[in-house]
Amino acid sequence: MPGEEAFEEDEELKRIKEKKLKELSKRASSSNMPVGIVTLSEESFDGFVSHSSIPVLIDFFAVWCPPCRMMEPVMEKLAEEFAGKVAFGKVNVDENTELALRFDVSAVPTFILFKNGKMLGRIIGARDYESFKEILEEAIKS
Description:
The protein is an alpha/beta fold. 49% of the residues lie in helices and 20% in strands.
């Protein structure tokens, strides 16, 4: 029956999706890496940045900043795509002024990339998805 074929394909696709989700979940939990974007404070920052040899991208932002809000969906998409390969954190500069001073954040958004606890580089201002993707892919290779 023609309708039966389409139903079988849908069931197979569903099984594949479930299997992939389980694999991704297992990989994320086995690496002890946080999934998504982690909100950081002055107390949690150093441990988060130095906890792994994978790159860590930190978004220094302010709630009142329109470009910062514009970057939220870009960062969420990147965090989803690079899950397990790059850790993502965000720091509210108004609530964590010592961190902002420590890293000389004078404009928001400012993005700082770390690897092995060391700063690799900084991006000031909003950028598009492709720009960040290239930077993160390069950081993973190095």
